[in-house]
């Protein structure tokens, strides 16, 4: 089985590509979803965060106050480092188990997408890294249309991310979704899938 890490900036078309890969038979795993599972009340991530950040970051019903923690970690790099230090090993362990299960089912490809794949070191588990990109101008317009952001809000979110130049350097394949037609993305995705599976055989 080939394990692919899918990276790319905000509104680059990653979710669209994941849906297309799923149609082709790939097992798709969303790192942000894995994080949410690990942070359910009583789970390991939930317990580790409670111990590290204290009960102030939890709601009355016991759930993690994601908004409050997000506000802290995205405005304080030390706090983000602390959160990453507790979450990344748990996410890695969870993914290892998930990939073993997927492989046992005879799946040809597993694709993992996540906000912090690069920063987490999770890419070490991947055979290939695929970058989904789109021209900055296109991404900015998509963000304004899809999320209702102002021009400044869209720029701020794009600027806060790891640079595409770094991702380009580590990518083994690149899918460009700048074209307004999702069909153009679909054709590139089919080619990447076919080529990667053929290479893995
Ligand atoms: C801070 C938390 C609680 C915020 O939760 P919330 O539901 O409000 O937001 P969500 O998870 O949807 O993330 C919102 C956006 O933040 C960014 N983001 C999330 N985690 C990180 C991170 N560790 N580093 C940089 N950016 C991140 C992404 O751009 C994402 O789209 C949550 O994101 C978290 O626990 N993150 C740390 C774990 C992690 O790195 N997960 C990604 C694994 S690949
Ligand atoms: N050729 C194309 N390929 C992919 N997406 C496209 C294309 N043309 C327009 N879009 C649109 O771009 C928007 C962003 O795509 P998508 O949600 O897949 O991005 P993303 O990288 O997952 O974003 P985020 O990081 O914010 O989750 C969607 O509304 C999608 O329909």
How would you describe this protein?
By secondary structure, the protein is an alpha/beta fold. It is globular, with a radius of gyration of 18 Å. Helices cover 57% and strands 12% of the residues. The chain has ten helices and five strands. It has a domain at 2-26 and 107-200: 3-Layer(aba) Sandwich (Rossmann fold). It has a five-stranded parallel sheet, sandwiched between helices. Bound molecules: dephospho coenzyme A and adenosine-5'-triphosphate (ATP). Adenosine-5'-triphosphate binds at residues 8, 10-16, 142, 146, 177, 179-182, 184-185.
Keywords:
12% strand, 10 helices, single chain, P-loop_NTPase, binds adenosine-5'-triphosphate, globular, binds dephospho coenzyme A, 5-stranded parallel sheet, ATP binding, 5 strands, kinase, ATP-binding, dephospho-CoA kinase activity
Mean pLDDT: 94
* Strand-residue proportion: 5-15%
CATH architecture name of the domain at 2-26 and 107-200: 3-Layer(aba) Sandwich
The CATH superfamily of the domain at 2-26 and 107-200 is identified as P-loop containing nucleotide triphosphate hydrolases
* Count of individual helical segments: 10
Number of strands: 5
Spatial sequence of strands, sheet with the most strands: 2-3-1-4-5
The gyration radius over C-alpha positions equals 18 Å
- Look at the structure and give the CATH class of the domain at 2-26 and 107-200: Alpha Beta
What's the overall geometry?
Answer: globular
Sketch the major β-sheet.
5 strands, parallel
Uncertain regions spanning at least 5 consecutive residues: none
Quote the CATH topology of the domain at 2-26 and 107-200: Rossmann fold
How do the helices and strands follow one another from N- to C-terminus?
EHEHHHHEHEHHHEH
What class would the helix/strand composition place it in?
A: alpha/beta
Task: State the end-to-end CA separation.
Answer: 9 Å
């Amino acid at each position: 089985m080939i394990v692919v890490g899918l990276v790319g900036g905000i509104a680059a078309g990653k979710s669209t590509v994941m849906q297309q890969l799923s149609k082709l038979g790939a097992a798709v795993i969303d790192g942000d979803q894995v994080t949410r599972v690990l942070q359910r009340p009583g789970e390991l991530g939930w317990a580790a965060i409670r111990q590290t950040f204290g009960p102030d970051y939890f709601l009355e019903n016991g759930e993690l106050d994601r908004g409050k923690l997000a506000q802290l970690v995205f405005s304080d790099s030390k706090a983000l480092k602390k959160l990453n230090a507790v979450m990344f090993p748990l996410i890695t362990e969870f993914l290892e188990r998930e990939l073993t299960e997927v492989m046992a089912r005879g799946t040809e490809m597993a694709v993992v997408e996540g906000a912090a794949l690069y920063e987490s070191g999770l890419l070490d588990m991947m055979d290939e890294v695929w970058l989904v990109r789109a021209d900055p101008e296109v991404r900015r317009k998509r963000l304004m249309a899809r999320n209702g952001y102002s021009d400044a809000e869209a720029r701020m979110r794009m600027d806060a991310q790891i640079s595409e130049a770094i991702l380009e350097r580590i990518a083994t394949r690149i899918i460009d979704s700048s074209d307004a037609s999702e069909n153009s993305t679909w054709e590139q995705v089919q080619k990447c899938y076919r080529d990667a599976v053929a290479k893995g055989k």
